[in-house]
Every structure is written in structure tokens, then in C-alpha cells.
């Protein structure tokens, strides 16, 4: 293999730029939504809103790790995106099993239904991209 095949910076080129942009948008959206929910109606659904804040932190970590594109940041991105996938599936299931705990949409509730299911698809694409560029 050539030296460029082992270049961690490959994650931020080509389709990686789109992936980073989408993660950035989700980082901003999740942070804003969680901030508003926690500030204005935390008492209504504290578990749901704290999970939204956790999702925001994971999106921020994934965005910066993908954009940094170093060997260490690839590991951080892989971990963040894997946690994201487990989170969206787990919280998606939990939001159907305990709907009273999710009176308002969160990023990952109902598998990201409020965001057009992009939160369910995004980590799959992210992990595939990391695998393709390794």
C-alpha cells in the first residue's frame, strides 16, 4: 500500500467533508435543543433532556475528531460514532417502551424521528466512512 493509504487526513476529504458538515449541523442543533429544553422545561422530562445533552456532546466530539483527522482523532471519532449508534438504538427502543419519559422529541428518541431518522443513519455512514478511509 502507498503512504497515502495510511494517511489519517483522508477522513476529511471528499465525502468526508459532507459527513463533517452534517455532524456539525447536528452538533449545533442538538446543543441548542438540549440547552433550551434543560433551561425551560427540565422538570418535565429530565432523563430525556439529559440524554439530548449527551447526544450533543457526542456529536461535538465526532465533528471535531473527524475534522482533525489524526491517528488519535480517528480513534476518538470511531468511539464517539459507535457510542452514538448504540445510543440512538437504545434510546429509540427506550422511548417506545417508556413513552412517558419522552413527552417531547429529543435527538435520539424514536430513532431520530424528529430529525427525519438521520440520527439513525448518520452513525452507520460515519463508521462506514472511517472503515473505508483507514
Please describe the topology of this protein.
Blueprint (H helix, E strand, L loop, with lengths): L14 H27 L4 H23 L2 H27 L20 H15 L2
Overall number of strands: 0
- Overall geometry: elongated
Radius of gyration, rounded?
16 Å
> What is the overall pLDDT average?
90
Q: Based on helices, strands and strand pairing, what is the structural class?
A: mainly alpha
Keywords for this structure?
single chain; 134 residues; mainly alpha; 4 helices; 0% strand
Plain-language structure description:
The protein is mainly α and 134 residues long. The protein is built from four helices and no strands. It has helices spanning 15-41, 46-68, 71-97, 118-132. Helix 1 (15-41) packs antiparallel against helix 4 (118-132), helix 2 (46-68) runs antiparallel to helix 3 and helix 3 packs antiparallel against helix 4 (118-132). The chain is elongated and about 45 Å long. The model has no long low-confidence stretch (mean pLDDT 90).
Amino acid at each position: 500500500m502507498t503512504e497515502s493509504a495510511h494517511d489519517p487526513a483522508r477522513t476529511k476529504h471528499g465525502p468526508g467533508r459532507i459527513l463533517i458538515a452534517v455532524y456539525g449541523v447536528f452538533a449545533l442543533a442538538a446543543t441548542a435543543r438540549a440547552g433550551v429544553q434543560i433551561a425551560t422545561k427540565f422538570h418535565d422530562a429530565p432523563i430525556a433532556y439529559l440524554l439530548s445533552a449527551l447526544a450533543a456532546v457526542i456529536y461535538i466530539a465526532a465533528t471535531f475528531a473527524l475534522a482533525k483527522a489524526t491517528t488519535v482523532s480517528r480513534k476518538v471519532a470511531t468511539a464517539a460514532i459507535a457510542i452514538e449508534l448504540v445510543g440512538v438504538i437504545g434510546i429509540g427502543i427506550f422511548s417506545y417502551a417508556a413513552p412517558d419519559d419522552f413527552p417531547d422529541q429529543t435527538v435520539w428518541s424514536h430513532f431520530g424521528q424528529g430529525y427525519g431518522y438521520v440520527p439513525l443513519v448518520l452513525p452507520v455512514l460515519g463508521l462506514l466512512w472511517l472503515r473505508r478511509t483507514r
